[in-house]
Protein: Proline synthase co-transcribed bacterial homolog protein
Amino acid sequence: MQQESGGDMLRRMSTESSSIAQKLKVVLENIQAACEKRPQKLQYAAPQLVAVSKTKGLDMVMEAYDAGQRHFGENYVQELDEKGHDIELLDHCEDIKWHFIGRLQRNKVAKLLGVPNLYMIETVDNERLAKAVNDTWGRLNKPAPIKCMAQVNTSGEENKSGCTPDTAVELARYMRENCPHIDLAGLMTIGSFGHNPKAGINPDFEKLVQVREEVCKALNIPTEDLGLSMGMSADYEQA
Structure:
């Protein structure tokens, strides 16, 4: 999902190889092939790959960076804080862009927002968390709002974070109208882990598309201005 232009983001690439550059090349080629099959109405932006680097060493992050990857996703605030402040990584990866994709507690917001090169928080799932992010970012006097996504629990699983599809409009409205230090970049879902891509389109993807239509209509936002973050290693091409 290219956030700036509102396209669909593909994420969740684990960098687990002695040849990360080659694996990255294959994934990007698969993404390009999938893009060419999309209908014309979805050709307004190229997908953006976010490589999940949680539990991976700095050497692997830097290898992926050297291969051209810029967007990386982390699940844990402490791990991202350590990686983000690492002197060697800061020197080597000057324009790295960190996405936080894990469950975020309000008492960890300040630490997260202090991470250098934090690009986006994809897991804002309630108004209290949105307010905490907004207020903290505002106190930091940053030159631009922090990009955030509203996380939607499209699968309805109790162990998943995210607002319900029925309350997504309300959360998005709150972020747009009450959080001047937040840039609502889109909607995110993790989706069900049990869906087999060979069985057909993932219903979680369809649900998130539907929710985006509802949000855009309610808030008068052009569809191309609200991105979608979805898809993992097994189903990124379908996403």
About this structure: The first strand starts at residue 8 and ends at 14. The mean pLDDT is 90. The two ends are 10 Å apart (CA to CA). Residues 20-36 form the longest helix (17 residues).
